[in-house]
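Dear colleague,

Following up on yesterday's call, I've attached the two folding results inline so they're easy to grep. Please treat them as preliminary; we haven't cross-checked anything against experimental data yet. The first protein's sequence and structure tokens come first.
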Amino acid sequence: MSKITNVECRLVFLEPETVRTDAMQTFVRQETILVTIETDDGLSGTGYSYTIGTGGRAVLSMLRDHLADRLLGADARNVEAVWAHLLAGTRATAVGVITSLALAAIDTALWDLRCRRAGEPLWRLAGGAHERLPVYDTEGGWLHLTIDELVANARAAKAAGFRGGKIKVGKPTPGEDAERLAAVRAEVGTDWEIMVDANQSLTGPEAIRRARTYEPLDIAWFEEPLPADDLSGHVRLARSTSVPIAVGESIYSAGQFAQYLAAGAAGIVQVDVARVGGITPWLKVAHTAEAFNVRVAPHFLMELHAGLACAVPAGTYVEHIPQLNAITHSALVIEDGHVVPPETPGLGITWNWDAIADLRVA
């Protein structure tokens, strides 16, 4: 047995490395929740999740007031059983984002423990499907940037070896978005992928209208065009366009992903470990996507998703958007436009505990 003896929860605020804007919001700060779990056999594992701007203290409260004590005495090796036990104890608030974020911080810590115990990196222990995957850049495509800035950023990203870039859309008119995308396409040519992201800002008819302007530009995917709870709207949109529809960062359970896939509403699955409740449900989603012959390109969390995307056959792209530089010693390895998952046992993240202590707010 590997009995859990201690659970420590922390909250740190991280400032974004650049100004980040989309059609719905400005990225204010990243509220990062860390959980460290210790066991009676001398091992420990650390996991994390995050919010953008608000809600970090609510997640911390869920952990401290309702979940941490339920872990004590449990066998850390039985990750599925622990996850199910915690979910059963939060039925009044599940499925919901605060509960999912709290579960994710615990579950990633348990997976860190599992990998360290086995002496294996996450990407191999969770499946070992790919030794590397292509990376695309998000930092150069924010909505507030001018056309000249978008073009310059895309040029730099391509020169740096990235295999594509994401451009935020949602300007007042379709013509403005199309002009920005066309300028980038003219700069990078046809051998570089362009993804677009509307951040749930459009109506169904408007999304269909704008998708038609993207088709001549050979867009890789149209991300979060509609509110995530508008399943029928995504179905209609997917049927109306040749551009793959990408969803997932705002979906909080494996069952909801299954509904999207069964309805043909998702051409790319962007499941996020933090928002779906951890690595345990993330893997279920990724394998369900594989069963529907749909690729997985996870949202955000590049330091963690690099290993997970490489673990599963459906993994296709990793999003480059730095998140943890201020509180880690490790760095993502990118070679020839591809991420190489860490080989160190565990999640592959080396935490800077001094920096965490300095930035800790709770």
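Below is the second protein, in the same order (sequence, then structure):
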Amino acid sequence: MTQDDRVKLEASWKAVLADEFKQPYMRNLADFLREEKQQGKVIFPPGAQIFNALNLTPLPQVKVVILGQDPYHGPGQAHGLSFSVPEGVAIPPSLLNMYKELQRDLNIPIAEHGCLQSWAEQGVLLLNTTLTVEQAKAGSHAKTGWQRFTDRVIDCVNEQCENVVFLLWGAHARSKGERIDGTRHLVLTSAHPSPLSAYRGFIGNGHFSQCNKFLQRTGQTPIDWKLPKAAVVQTGLDL
């Protein structure tokens, strides 16, 4: 994948990732995505939203990282932010469990929509470790090169930011913890919020309040986890 006019990337990320886009694996990844589309396969999220997490949260503003794995693979769900869906799309089960923990931990009412953009705009990097997926095929792009690219993103945050809170939920996210300097950042780990594991350690982890206490202790503004009201009507369609 080359860094040209087709790749719209926020300036601070563009500066630190420019060399990465020149690597052969990224060119191979771009070729793969083009070939998949030429074969008529539907790829999520839309091309303009692949780097949404980076574009909404510039590197110097990163205060929290919430690490996901794969984009959602249903129509209309993925928009480049981990765990998030656009307004008007039914709230996915994992995100609903995150809302339940927010309610338990900080007494924040369960949101009426699933768009987490306001978190991203406050400095929460909502990063999936794989940035694209084929429709209805979870994990289909996991071995195409994205993991190496997002490892580099994590490295940039680890190296260039101070006092970041990393929320690593589930085995896949926890495996990235070895890249993070725990003496400079706060790393919080637990079970994943999916229905299969949420009640085996995610619900009750207190991560949202621990995160804000750490941010305040290190002189940073805490995250307002309460989402703004939806601008559109919820469809109720479970995509």
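For the second protein, one point worth flagging: The first helix runs from residue 11 to 21.

Best wishes,
A.L.
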